[in-house]
Structures are given as structure tokens and as C-alpha cells.
Amino acid sequence: MHALAMNQAVPTDNGYRILDALNVAILCLDREQRVTYVNASAENLFDSSAGNLAGRKFSKLLSGVEPSSILQRLAAAPQGLTERRAVITLASGRTLFADYSIFPLGDDPDEGELLIEIRPLERQVQFAQEDLQQLYQQASQQLTRSLAHEIKNPLGGIRGAAQLLQRALDNPEWSEFTEIIISEVDRLQALINNMLGPESRLQMAPLNIHEVLEHIRKIMVAAEPERIRFHRDYDPSIPDMTADRDLLIQAFLNIARNAVQAIDGEGEVHFRTRILRQCTIGKKNHPLAVQIDIVDSGRGIAEELAETIFLPMITDKPDGSGLGLPIAQDIVSRHGGTILLQSSSAGTTFSTILPLEST
Q: Do 186 and 115 fall within a single domain?
């Protein structure tokens, strides 16, 4: 339940629902600038529950190293004000651009109660990134499916001709060459099937996302027993979801393999989960969603490659096929979710966001 000061007017249940439905973080502070109320978006912003935030000084929610203008404004007279594109650094070290507003609460401004409204601008960037990825995905799917079907037909003819030729040849040495033709055709057909991606209907069933991630982590630990250290940071409050377990395993396995391949020598990969409230994916708002971060300590992705990394055949790895991430994005998209990318020279984070309601 949201924390409230004793002298603060208590919203109705409907009022709570309205405030929690907002994509803007709302906080109420008492005269000592201690938190008395937060909505769901504020819980997401500060990555903490309303119960943990209640009673804390607002300044403690921000970085003590990089002062924010919002603290300077709060120290001034409590007049209504708005600041655009402010830089806010949270206590966790996360920095964001945001518009914020401060309003005095109640009939008497001298009482010192305040309402703070914070609107992170990264949502706009996220929406633009999701729209761009959706366009890329639609264009690449149409292209790859058309190309794949055009290639599959002659491949079948080549394989059949090689089999007939193999039966007609008396020389075992020549048969070896036909075997090469057949095996290479089979390899190309498997590659084409991967390009086409999963076409079957989703086999939806209740599952625990942490069980899926643990399955993947064990596979990766077995493959990289010494070179890579794997860490877990799971939110135990995340409920079960409805999804296709096998396809999600394939998607996260592709992302995890990409993370490991990005690390030269020894390194670390982190599996992290968090609950999201009032999360917008594409054009649809979801009351609850789960964010799964797979973070590597690798070399990062070049800026010119980051915008096209989810297109087929795009890769920075000499032995990579460039199909793993597009297939992962397709699987996640079919579940109503999306994959976001953040990369720097310190490493890369692939954030998969999935709605928790039935898809």
C-alpha cells in the first residue's frame, strides 16, 4: 500500500488507480521533504516499493556525488515551477534526462508540503527505438522470407540431382564429392529455416521466468566453465507468466551466447530481473511487465552497428551468422514484448521486456 502522511488527504481507491495508471512519476513530500506518497511510476523510477520509499528524505533518493538542479529548486521558496531536460542522477548511479515540476500542496504554501512530478524523457527515446525496430523487423522478415523461399526450391532440386548422380556413379571417390554436395545443401537448408524463424503457433503455458533463466545459465556455465563468471540478481516478487517455454529458452539462449561471444578472454555476464508497472510496449500499456537484463562486460557494440543489430546477417563476429538476435527479437515480439539495447565500451545490456498478463 502507498505510504501517506497522517494529515494528507487520502485518495479514493479510484484515485489510486488513476495515479498508478500515469506514466509520470508522482511523489508527495512533507515539510521536511520526506516521502509521504509515490505512485507506481515513481516505484519504477527509483526501483523500490512504496513501503521502502515512505519516510525517506527525497535527497537520499538522488546521487550525493552529482548534485541535481531539482534539489536546488526544492531548497528555494516553494513556488510552482517546471524545468525541461534536466539531468537527474539517482542514488543507484543511473542518470536520466527528465522534465520535472514542483507544486506546493494544500491551501497554505507555508506548510511546506510539495508534489513532485518527474517525466523521464528516455520513454520518448524508447518509443522511437521500438518503432524503428518494428519497421526494421517487418522489412527484414518480408525480405528474408521471400529470399528464403526463392532459395529453398533450387536447393531441393540440387539435392535430388546429387542423390541421383550418387546412385549412378561406380567410383567411390566420386561419391565422396556428391556427399559433400548433399551435406552442404542440407547445411544451407538449415540456415534458411533459421532465417524463416519459428512459424508454428505459440505453445502457451504458465512458467516461471527464473526457471527459464536458470536453465540457460546452467547451459552457459557448462560451455564456459572457467572463462566467464555468471551472476544472478533476480526479483523474487515476479509472478508466473504465460508464454512458450521452448521459444523463450531459444531467445534468451541466443542473447546469452551473444553476450559470451562479445567477451575477449575472461569476463562476467549478469542475469537480472525486475518488475515493471504501467509499462508501455509499442502502443500498448501493460499494468505489469517483467524486464530481463543480460549484461556482459565485453567490448561493446559499435555505434554504427547498434541501430541495425537486429537485422538478419548483421554481426561483428567473424564466425557469427547474424541470425541469433533477429530470431530472439521475433520470438519476443510474438509474445507482445520487445528487446532494447544499451552498449558502451564497458559492456552491453540487452533488456527484454515482456508483459505479465496472458498474451
A: no
